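ok trying again, last paste got cut off:
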Amino acid sequence: MFRGTSADTHHSLTKDALLTLLRALVVSKVDCYSTVLVGVSLSLTDRLQSVLNTAARLVFSARRSVTPLLRDLHWLKVPERIKFRLCVLTHRCLHGTALPYLAETLQWTSNMSARRHLRSAATPTLVVLSTRRSTLGGRVFPVAAARTWNSLPSSLQAVQSLTTFRRHLKAELFESSFT
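nice, full thing came through this time. structure:
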């Protein structure tokens, strides 16, 4: 039978065990649902960030500023996590490793006959569909994916390997998040 307070429990786990537990129970849930969180209110992303901040403080048993803790853990902040997951899903769609019904919703600018003669047709950008409602319409996958993909540097868009793309994308988002 397990007895003791939560403070006793925290001290009975090693830092690595606690980190593994938090990644499995907290961070994975934030990441799992992050693609549906595109365009949600700032108050909701702040609440999710608060959860990650608390997890980081728990790992280090610290009450100090959370930014250095997140940096040490190499955890992205919530808005960057959302962008990371959406870009990875978009990359998978563009390279044929995602579900076909998602991939079919994305279209290269160069494939549109009306835009073939524009300079943008030579860039690896996606068509951003027009929406009637900026709040809800901007959150649908084809619109959010295209906007997010088009905001990436072209050098990152050109990466073919998913593993390399993830590594470079995380480095890019990590740099923008903590500078």
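cool. The chain has two domains: 6-79, 80-177. Residues 80-177 form one domain.
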